[in-house]
Amino acid sequence: MISIQSNKVKALSVLSLCLSVFAVSLPASAGAVDAKLDNAMQEQFPNQYKSWLATSEQTERQDMLASYPAAIILWAGSSFAKEYHSPRGHHFAVADVTHTLRTGVAVAEGEKGLSASCWTCKSPDVPRLIGELGVEGFSAKNFTDLGTEIQSVVYCTDCHVKGSAKLALPRPHAQDAMTKAHIPFDKQDINMQGAQVCGQCHVSYYFQPERSNKVNIPWIFGNNADDIEKYYDTRRFYEWIHPISKTPILKARHPEFEHWSRSEHAKQGVTCITCHMPATSDDKGNQFTSHKVSKALEHYPQACQGCHGDKAALMQTLETGKHEIEAKAREVEGLLVKAHYEAQAAWDAGATWPIINDALMAIRHSQWRWDFAMASHGLYAHNPSEGRELLDTAIEQAKYARTSLAEILKMLEVKEVNYPDISTKESAQKAVGISLDTLTEQKKAFLKEEVDKHWSEVSRHGYE
Ligand code: HEC
Ligand code: HEC
Ligand code: HEC
Ligand code: HEC
């Protein structure tokens, strides 16, 4: 494996020299992926290229709000309550973020819309644009303003030095974060570097308001749920004020890197690459790394069997872990939905901040831990014990919030609290005032007038 690779690296450095000779003839406006580089990649690395292309076959995804409608109440007041799907193949990254109701429609000239930071984990055009505009110059732009600049989905140059097989971390926020966590990219072995290239995107982040909404990874105190919560609490940070309970809410985003980094697998040197991009071979027996980044269990023989010989036992462990985590998550959701409405009833009856603050902080901290577990896709496989601990604490905190609210409601002589019907996505969205029909119509008009006419074809992949 090592010798195959070093030969390829040599071949590549020759190739990159050739490319720099051709570079003069490229159009000045070429995006991150110019046609010459793309052809060269395809010819030089047909196996990696073909398997990378095959992520376009991973069309399946799950409507998470339909599966777990309680989440709509917990995310009320944010765009997450409008639409939220599980992830699918990398080839859909640009089209899905373009089409989701979360990113909405274009705003009027001169108005501040959603930040261009939403493009950060979708395309190699982002490091290019950051190079041209600066970190804050990029994030200060509106998402829709940069739509025409985004010409490629997750590509070779998102993980490799341009024209080379050497791994790279082109996103400044990821370079910063790995340094904060004392694992600077340049000092890591190839195994950890592989995990870090995934960790550019599969990681928790927030948009830093005082820095033009640039992507920031909140790891100053460390990167578990307690450390990140401390970071946010000491900054009095919140993403939005919950419209029902008035809780200042924290939102977690896919901390797959963090959860994996504390797992038994990480200690054994088993990384994202081992499980999601296993070594494989073509019909001539040449070994290469599969670039069809996809579900790990599809690769059981290459990725797991060597260490977990008993497939049935492994599936049983996974099933049990998944079931336990799901059951605990549903319990937290049930408790938090009630807590949000009990807080609303308390406010309506005249509660004040000094009285209700303790309960609202418990809602904030419980929902944070629930989200830190739920936003981490594949937690039951990546780190089931951390998942169980997070949700057990979330349950305790939500129960504490409700006990505190029950005392307040008693004091204010509130006899009854009305809870919403959250049996379906439709009923839960209705309860928080979301009209899916209106949002969908506005989105359709935007797609027809703007995206279909002016944006690159990658923004329509899977929607035509
Ligand atoms: C999402 C990140 C990612 C993307 C996108 C990506 N690669 Fe890779 N690539 C890796 C990782 C990780 C390795 C494995 C490094 C290791 O552990 O040896 C790798 C290995 C390679 C190697 C070394 C030989 C081998 O198969 O292990 C080549 C060549 C290569 N990639 C080419 C490409 C090309 C060409 C593209 C674009 C079509 C591409 N890569 C896209 C992450 C990526
Ligand atoms: C540039 C950002 C970026 C990088 C780098 C990246 N991903 Fe992703 N990944 C995404 C996005 C965005 C999606 C969701 C795409 C969608 O649903 O439209 C995704 C989806 C996935 C999925 C779901 C696939 C499916 O079919 O269900 C897996 C698994 C995954 N990534 C693993 C990895 C691994 C492993 C690496 C490192 C080798 C990696 N990703 C690197 C952005 C990235
Ligand atoms: C021990 C193997 C293993 C390791 C290591 C691992 N994963 Fe996974 N991952 C899985 C399994 C198993 C699942 C559950 C679904 C599946 O992929 O079969 C999963 C699920 C996911 C999903 C959700 C896929 C979906 O469509 O819902 C993403 C994204 C993901 N992993 C990314 C990563 C990243 C990024 C890393 C490294 C930081 C990583 N994984 C490390 C095995 C692993
Ligand atoms: C290099 C060896 C190795 C590989 C490859 C490997 N694992 Fe593991 N796995 C371990 C070790 C060691 C443990 C910890 C001891 C144990 O529970 O068996 C473990 C534990 C687990 C656990 C229990 C986790 C927990 O914390 O309770 C699951 C689930 C699991 N592995 C799934 C997978 C899957 C799925 C794959 C393939 C996609 C995989 N592993 C690949 C070595 C490996």
Automatic annotation (TrEMBL):
Family named by the database record: Belongs to the cytochrome c-552 family.
Top EC category: oxidoreductase
Gene Ontology biological-process annotations: anaerobic electron transport chain
Organism of provenance: Shewanella sediminis (strain HAW-EB3)
UniProt-annotated location(s): Cell envelope
Gene Ontology molecular function: heme binding; metal ion binding; nitrite reductase (cytochrome, ammonia-forming) activity
Top-level taxon in the UniProt lineage: Bacteria
Catalytically driven reaction(s): 6 Fe(III)-[cytochrome c] + NH4(+) + 2 H2O = 6 Fe(II)-[cytochrome c] + nitrite + 8 H(+)
GO cellular component: outer membrane-bounded periplasmic space
EC number: 1.7.2.2
PANTHER family: CYTOCHROME C-552, CYTOCHROME C-552 RESPIRATORY NITRITE REDUCTASE
InterPro entries the UniProt entry points to: Cyt_c552, Multihaem_cyt_sf
Keywords: Calcium, Heme, Iron, Metal-binding, Oxidoreductase, Signal
UniProt main location, coarse: other
Segment forming the signal sequence: 1-30
Protein name from the UniProt record: nitrite reductase (cytochrome; ammonia-forming)
